[in-house]
Amino acid sequence: MRPIDPRDYPGLGVGGLLVAVQLALLAVGGFGSIPWLALVGAVLVVIALVFLIVPVVQFKRHGGVARGDIFANTTVVVDTGLYAVVRHPQFLAMPVLVVGIALLAQRWGVALVGAAAVGAFLVDFTRADRRDVAKFGQPYREYMQRVPGWNPLAGLWRLRSGARR
Asked: What pTM, to 2 d.p., does this model score?
């Protein structure tokens, strides 16, 4: 099996750079003046961090990752925990983080940089599904039918209702 190659996901590099620009603009300009928006932004940043960190643990525990290998080199489809709610929690985390930072800053420049970052992350999301179909075949296609890509509300509803679409 071919290991994860950063060139497979150029949007993460571009999007990550744009998030760094957002953070720099936030550091220079400070927080916005509407406290409740900043609070919503802070909550979104925390949610994004959870969606970035928890999958690392889940892949290591349930993904058949070889000892010493990076977490993303799974050998089985993981469909428990966050992966029962959305197919790509880490890809979901990035736009959530971008929106959170924009709400903290409350400036158009930060929001526009964030919009560009979301576009970059969207490119990699579609690449991730294609790569995983090639890697896992039919089990991943079935997983795609059951679990939404980026919509945690639909994923939670599906879990709650017991739907197995």
From this structure: 0.84
- R_g (Cα) of the chain, nearest Å: 17
Residue of 6, 22, 4 lying closest to 118 (CA atoms): 22
DSSP 88-112: -HHHHHHHHHHHHHHHHH--HHHHH
pLDDT band at 51 (very low <50, low <70, confident <90, very high): very high
Q: 152: domain range? A: 35-156
Joined tokens for residue 150:
């980026």
Q: One-letter amino acid identity for 73?
A: N
Does any domain span residue 57?
yes
Number of domains in the chain: 1
Distance CA 46, CA 59 (A): 20
Tokens 């620009």, residue?
A: 21
- At 56, list the tokens: 């690392």
Residue 32 pLDDT greater than 50, yes or no:
yes
Cα–Cα distance for residue pair 61/83, rounded to 1 Å: 13
Residue type, 66: A
| Token representation of residue 149 | 């890509």
